[in-house]
């Protein structure tokens, strides 16, 4: 029988912080905080597995659960010295949900459970405070009736409101005891009327009701939707935490708050948070009252504040990460109610990682592990163009709120989540404007460019959810007067209607009317620091796909160490002159005419290559010879054909005829790639000449060059040998004529399955391979990348066919295409141990694929310039993960008979095991690569794979 309930209290806990998957984040955090001696009210946690059992058996509880819970209640009663349902001094508990991943506000919590008509009187006497006792009771009745029993919230809120109105008071805390008692009776009468039975008085019945409520909220629409949006579908349920209550609503020497051990927006190492005096639970987060800054606690309750500062230090040291904390102060004594690693802005992720390495709190490896590839994308989120004239900004400034999540956003105003989702689906950028957000709104919040709320602080629902996404958000914008009915918001005398434009500056908290220009932000220094750590650790080189000197320059700025794919055909579309020249070459019907046309292209290409070589300054540059089918270059409508005929001085019919000739019914599998050069060797000759002449020119000017000439779509050794010898012949002629020495490589793409299978033969002459995984995926799967969009989504959707986890054109199909790659690598290196191998498909910039490329021993990946940092990160993470896996595998090798011995053995075994790590196994291949020779000396990461 599995253990289903884990106790924590008085410095001891049955679970611990590593058991998030079993106890949920909240349960694991409570156990860990208890064990390290922090003041945590005692309690127990029902496991997530129990929730999964409950659902698996058609919402029934396992038989033995009742007994286990009763035992734990007894333990809790012993630990607290109070008894559940005691008429004099009752034990009150909270019943709290908590899944393995944070799902802010998605699930339910019930506070003050254990109160009934008798014990509320006992509590009033024991504490000498009837107001407090009845305030707790009315909160409990409200929460239990709505969350556990499904009554709607409004009627009881109405009664509360009316009570305050009749008494001419504003704050809940001002309602006197007698009136609260009346309110409790009204609530109970309402409950009886709606449910046909009296409000449950037995605490055990209450407890089971609350446990059911927590379990059932797992499948509530909003929670299901949240898991979909956040890709958390793998979670199996929630834990339930039953915990002794502490009372922030007891008096003015009590309060409750939420804080972060560092600033979650800037990442700065300062204590940061909100709190309220005389308040309970959700009051701070719900944004009903505007909270105070944490620092104000220092003057109000210096003792508790000091304790809290100590807790901050302890927890950061313990978890080696920024923590998000919930606390309550009761009679100036501090209690900790929750801790978890805090969500933070993309900028803060880098700042904290770099700072913590400097503080020696974490290692560089740990810092690298903490960054997700999405975080890099998010860093590049827009800000308002700083060149916007100050006058314009002033004129458009509408109002200010609390700067909850940095970045900027501009879009059409909408007032509800459905509209946001509907418009965003059509590609319209929207700003979601709400009084406050609630978990029901997450779909719309996700779809919106930015979020603006009237109420709430930096820890409100809107702020927390938006921060997780790095989405611009302004909260607590009190000047807004929102009418959902009229679909408009009034600010002073300005009325903004649905569909009007607003621009938000989430960094400053300013709302502007209309559209402002947004630009990419400046990156924090910490970004460069963390990526430098990545470069130190990774062994996989990162190159870029670039076709112009400009792109090449950009890519170097992003950290690229060479060009892995320069597509020569892209150079032909740059100007009218170029298009004309290539078209003339294609419509030519004799070798002489074609050569004449090619002669016009030669200087153009040479100049481009020269520019690229210069920009890459010694880094390797892989140039792929012409690849697409020729018909893609010629005009298909009559007017354009006539123009072309006129421009190059041949009859229109001839052009038309040639275009028809070039037509193919399946061009993807047609006359393209190296097959063009097999048929028209003069194209090869011109391109190789242009490359080598440009390289010679660079060399003469003292610029380092390393051209790598690449033949696309090769599928046979004899075919490659032919191309290779032609390439070398042309190159030799140019080099000899120049009278200098020039190093260059000749290689091939591996993008046809046959080439992967026959790689051993092809590698006899090839000096390098580059996996073209776009084509290789198409051809291995027999799926057209351009058309698969119609059905591929069903293959990826786990609710439909769910055949693939990811789109194979985005994330490499490791099982199939990956297997071909492995065959290709093994074959290639078997005949040519020095073979340099890379990848140049889209996959080269996708984190999971990059890690795979590292694992199978590639020398480099190549991707578009803006994805270069993602590839650098992923390549470093691959090394760290490999090390971690080796460490984890080490102790298992010698399974010791007894536990006590196991530890000692594990320590000893760890050292040799490290040496045997898979990294080293791959080493011969790495060492054998021509990296050393080919590497231009001065480059930082050149010591590794190239
Ligand atoms: P959430 O996951 O939505 O944060 P929690 O379970 O943390 O929900 O609880 C909601 C609120 O109730 C929080 O502010 C929390 O601090 C407070 N709370 C929960 N348990 C207790 C308790 N035993 N005593 C006092 N306050 C509590
Ligand atoms: Mg909480
Ligand atoms: Mg290709």
General description of the model:
There is one protein chain. This protein is of the alpha/beta class. It has 39 helices and 32 strands. An eight-stranded mixed β-sheet has the order 13-23-22-15-16-17-18-14. Strands 25-26-27-28-29-30-31-32 form an eight-stranded parallel β-barrel, surrounded by seven helices. α6 packs antiparallel against α7 (177-195) and α15 packs antiparallel against α35. The longest helix is centred in the middle third of the chain and has 26 residues, at 591-616. Residues 895-943 have low confidence and may be disordered. The structure holds adenosine-5'-diphosphate and magnesium ion (2 copies).
Please outline what is shown here.
By secondary structure, the protein is an alpha/beta fold.
**Low confidence ranges:** 895-943
Largest sheet: 8 strands, mixed
Kindly estimate the percentage of residues that lie in beta strands according to DSSP. 15-25%
Number of strands: 32
Small-molecule binders = adenosine-5'-diphosphate, magnesium ion
Taking all Cα atoms into account, the compactness measure Rg is 34 Å
Helical segment tally?
39
> From the helix content, strand content and strand pairing, which structural class follows?
alpha/beta
For the largest beta sheet, what order do the strands appear in spatially? 13-23-22-15-16-17-18-14
First-last Cα distance: 55 Å
Please state the oligomeric state of the protein chains shown. Answer: single chain
Mean pLDDT: 90
Percent in helix: 40-55%
Shape field: elongated
